TrEMBL record:
Keywords: DNA-binding, Nucleus, Transcription, Transcription regulation, Zinc. PANTHER family: FARA-RELATED (PTHR47171). InterPro entries: Amide_Lactam_Regulators, XnlR_reg_dom. This is DNA, SC011. The keyword Cell membrane does not apply. Residues 63-191 form the Xylanolytic transcriptional activator regulatory domain. It comes from Aspergillus oryzae (strain ATCC 42149 / RIB 40) (Yellow koji mold).
Length: 278
């Protein structure tokens, strides 16, 4: 339900105005109950800390970890735009909690303890629950921000019996992307798609630039999926096999399969793209 009567928002988008107009037609008793529901939701968000960030030094370190360790695997933000909003304190709370959740999966023990958590599971669980509650209460009205956060939540794995696991959140993200038409008339990825005109303005300490290997990984992964996306029948299956063979042969040197030990700095992206092929 979110905040249909607009009690907790300073600004208002046209979507908010449309929703407000719709709910303004309701009777007073119904409005009162909805206002009470919205008030309880806001109290819940406050009680679990969903609208608060960490101390700046902790927040900065988590942002640094996210853009170093996580962003190369999911480059779903414009780095210059994210930096601008982060420095101005305007990053969506939903997005911020999702980013923190993912960063806490990879940060040092010292950092998650500095953030106030006794162990890594509690740290990731807390930020995941904050983001999930923000999503469940429809707090965020921006469709793209919601899509970005939901995709990040697909990295959650709480337990073997978790129902809202990676497939749950991935399905929501795919449905939202399709409902926004993001799957239509999209040209194949190229290295130019990763270029940023104001790259010189980005703080490389916090918002590290992805490596060329990680960019090539996404370019060739997208091409792989485009070659294997047709419905199955025998002629297409044979063509797909030829396509796969030619795709693997076209991989650049940086993504060729190697037998050596794999590390984040060397061989990670080649290993990932070849695993996708298998």
């Amino acid at each position: 339900m979110g905040d249909p009567l607009g009690a907790s928002r300073n600004g208002r988008t046209w979507e908010d105005a449309l929703e407000h107009l719709y709910f303004s037609q309701l009777g007073q008793s119904t409005k009162t109950q909805i206002e009470e529901h919205s008030r309880n939701q806001r109290l819940q968000l406050r009680d679990i800390g969903a609208l608060k960030s960490f101390e700046k030094n902790v927040s900065d370190d988590l942002i640094r970890i996210f853009f170093e360790m996580c962003y190369p695997q999911c480059p779903i933000f414009d780095r210059a735009d994210f930096q601008h909003n982060y420095e101005a304190g305007r990053v969506s709370p939903l997005v911020l909690q999702a980013v923190f959740f993912l960063a806490l999966n990879h940060c040092s023990e010292e950092l998650y303890k500095r953030a106030g958590f006794a162990n890594r599971y509690l740290a990731t669980f807390t930020c995941y629950q904050r983001a999930k509650t923000l999503y469940d209460t429809n707090y965020e009205s921006d469709a793209i921000a919601t899509l970005q956060a939901v995709y990040l939540l697909s990295f959650w794995w709480g337990s073997p019996m978790e129902q809202k696991d990676m497939w749950h959140w991935t399905g929501i993200a795919c449905n939202r992307a399709q409902s926004l038409g993001l799957h239509q008339s999209v040209e194949m990825l190229g290295e130019d798609d990763f270029e940023i005109s104001d790259d010189d303005l980005i703080n490389p300490d916090l918002f590290r630039e992805p490596t060329r290997q990680s960019r090539l990984y996404f370019i060739y992964l997208a091409e792989l999926y485009s070659r294997t996306g047709a419905k199955f029948n025998e002629p297409l299956a044979l063509k797909s096999l030829d396509d796969l063979t030619s795709w693997k042969a076209s991989l650049p040197r940086e993504l060729k399969h190697r037998e050596s030990t794999v590390s984040v700095e060397d061989g990670l992206w080649a290993t990932l793209v070849n695993l996708s092929y298998l």
